Amino acid sequence: MSNTIKIWIDLWTTNSAIVINSNWKFEIIKNSDQMDYTPSVFGYNKGKNIQVWQKAYEQIFQHCDEENMKNYKAEVKRLMWTNEKIKFERVNKEFSPEEISSEILKYQKEAVIRKYPDINTDWVIITVPAYFDTIQKEATKKAWELAWFKHVVLIQEPIAGAMAYGFDNKKNENWLVYDLGWGTFDVAVISSKDWVLTIKWHEWDNYLWGKDFDNLIVDEIIIPKLKDNFSFKKLNKEKNRTIYNILKSYAEWAKKDLTDRENTNIVIDNKLIVDDNWEEVYLEIIFTRSELEKTVSKLINKSIKLCENAIKESWLSNKDINKIILVWWPTQMPFIKKQLTQKLWIKTDSSMDPLTVVAKGACIFWASQIIPEEHNESRKKEKIWSAKVKLNYEPVVSDTDTTVVGIIEELSGWWEYYIQIQSEDWKYSSSKIKLKNGKFFDTVLVTEWKTNTYFIYLCDDKWNIINTEPESFTITHWLSIAGTPISHNISIALNKKTFLWDNTEEYCETIFERWSILPLKKTLTYRTTRNLKKWDIENALPIKIYEWGSKKPDRNKEICEIKLSWTEIPYNLPEWTEVKLTIDIDISNMLSVSVYLPSIDLVKSWKSMRTEWEQEIIDNTKMREEIEKENTRLEQLSEHIPEDLKEEIKNTIKELYTQTNSKDKDTQNKTHHQIRELKQTMDKHELETESSRLIKQFNEEIKKSEEVFNEVDSPLEYKQMGSLKSDWEIAIKNKDWERLETINDTIAWLRTASILNTPEGMKYRLGLLYEKRHESTDPIKSNEIFNRCLQYVQSNDKEWMRQCIRELLALMPEDVQTGLWNISWITK
């Protein structure tokens, strides 16, 4: 039995499909409705029975009413990494998005078993959008596991598309994969060179998708006509969800029809209800291809900008790209092909079926994925004893020969054993290879551009044949894959001093850079920056892992947090305790983290995501506040940003304000994501103005500090500032803006320390501590110190006031001493 994966299933946002690979012939398995593609819709009918696929689609779109809206769910993939719960009123049950997805997948799986009852459905390849982060991939994988698949491998959709086109390609070329699906947009630059396929760069927009076209057709074409001809003046997307669902089905049909025609008729013949008033509607709308093109042009232009950026970031020009590979149905719109050709000056290639190209690429990828031993059920079912052969080889190679290494651990006796490897077509046959301690290796010849099957023959020194498991293996000659990269930076939250009195802050340091090739593993050593006390319930040591690429934690997405608590330590751990962190990301981008404290021999591991995603609560009011802050930043940076770009950001802010009025979950998630992107955009522009801002700040800090040092007689601080001036000149020369910011903070700290070391500064610090005296761990002792300190305050005795401050601080909880809660307490 083959030990490679034979099934590919994709749960798309609106549709799903299943494909099997039989000797490189790819077959789409039809569902019970005899359709190649299955609408990803799940619900309960009036008989309280599960209903999926086309019939469920018709209930929620074509025959939509309020009752159906409460009992059917579509496009659940967009919620699969949230903590959303979907309730079905007919059965009074709540499901997570992963559970709904798994129910759809179970029906897909049954369709395979009906046609091929002997095929092993335990193993499957999943394709996911390129932009998916760790939590999204884990949520996707969880849905498949709930559908009873035992071994799941992930591959990015643009890569699968490129692999399909590259299967018969022997040229050195660069391709742009343009993947516009119903739920996502991905663009990837792929290089095929010397028979090796490499991803150069990819961009994405998870809120630019084919369904957006449908929404625009409804909003800009259909709704205005309805309002002109009927009494639907108050038609509202939030309040009239049923009508919008019905109209979207008309829009989708019209959009498809215009792929092959210059114009079409949208014929609406329904009984619609608005504000509790029913009205019979019959309306014919003549809809032309030019109207469609005008309606969706903004979205297409946005996708082309992402294409241009992907090419630029790949250090290539448009002339270096040989063709644009089109993936998924919306790319067949003539307008998209025309715009891509005219604006990028690159020819488009849709020679393969855009609906099946990803499936074919995934099938090709199967050949490079061997089923792990622990998942290979065929060995457990073997009735006749066979020698278990553990093989190590590359299942896909671009050379005409390759090495195969193996070991057989179960053979015993004083006699000798031999192995012979022979290809199915008899083009290669090894000599009899004598086993050494059960081990062997051989260099086999590989026939070009085909899957080669090799049989294993094992015999003893008397030429008795012994059964082996497996009895054969396959090696495919094809373009080799340079490796799948991670989509985003993976970083850890660390703690650093800000050079201001008793203050620290959290920042992110990158562990793995974006584009690092999977699998990845690294062990790093850190130190704690606070005491960890036994029996102190609030005194945890959180270690947080983030995804994306900013140094500011709130711009990133937290994917893991391990908390070492008081229950896990045998005694108090002092500040600067060593912490070893091991982070591991497998070929499917699944992340695991292990924390080890050598001093107490404690290991704490984290492997899979939480059962319920601990997603940040999305609040429209809070989002409006964040948008306002970014608008203020835009005003502050206004003179440094080009006018066209500034206008674009203003329009984005305006759109975001409008979106915060929506109560729709998908719109709220979209807005939350776009605000994070807006922050990153503003960070980028702020960084571009760092030189002038930091130089100006440096000069101001120097001037202020010199005045203070002269006034309070601080020769030591004055000398230290002179040293910092030299460091500043080096930072300017190297354009090291981060170092320059640190120097500015240090000068500010020196000035603050100098002021605080004056009698007035000491009194100020004592005043702050007096206000927080109720938080002292020993209020009686604190009061005694304050009473004793009065005489030192009256006599301006700095040394004794400083001593009182030290004693009072020692009695304060650590969070009061630092002024921060729940931040990372480890550093390098």
Describe what this molecule looks like in 3D.
The chain is 38% helix and 27% strand. The protein is α+β, with helices and mostly antiparallel strands and 828 residues long. The chain has 6 domains: 7-149, ATPase, nucleotide binding domain (Nucleotidyltransferase, domain 5); 158-367, 2-Layer Sandwich (Nucleotidyltransferase, domain 5); 373-477, Immunoglobulin-like (Sandwich); 490-606, Substrate Binding Domain Of DNAk, Chain A, domain 1 (Sandwich); 620-688; 706-821, no CATH class. The strands form 9 sheets. Strands 1, 2, 3, 4, 10 and 11 form a 6-stranded mixed β-sheet that branches. It has a 6-stranded mixed β-sheet with strand order 18-17-12-13-14-29. Strands 20, 22, 23, 25, 26 and 28 form a 6-stranded mixed β-sheet that branches. Strand 1 (7-11) and strand 2 form a beta hairpin.
Tell me the layout of helices and strands.
Layout: E1 7-11, E2 15-22, E3 25-28, E4 38-39, E5 41-44, E6 50-52, H1 53-62, H2 66-69, E7 72-74, E8 86-88, E9 93-95, H3 97-115, E10 123-128, H4 134-146, E11 151-156, H5 157-166, E12 173-180, E13 185-193, E14 196-205, H6 210-229, H7 241-257, E15 263-274, E16 277-288, H8 289-313, E17 323-327, H9 334-344, E18 348-349, H10 357-366, H11 377-381, E19 387-392, E20 396-397, E21 401-408, E22 417-423, E23 433-434, E24 439-445, E25 451-460, E26 465-466, E27 468-469, E28 472-477, E29 480-481, E30 490-497, E31 504-512, E32 520-528, E33 541-547, E34 557-564, E35 578-585, E36 591-597, E37 602-606, H12 620-636, H13 643-659, H14 665-688, H15 690-712, H16 715-734, H17 737-756, H18 759-771, H19 779-794, H20 798-810, H21 814-818, E38 826-827
Parallel strand pairs: 1-10, 10-11, 12-17, 14-29, 17-18, 19-27, 20-28
Antiparallel strand pairs: 1-2, 2-3, 2-4, 5-6, 5-7, 8-9, 12-13, 13-14, 15-16, 19-21, 21-24, 22-23, 22-25, 25-26, 25-28, 30-31, 30-33, 32-35, 32-38, 33-34, 35-36, 36-37
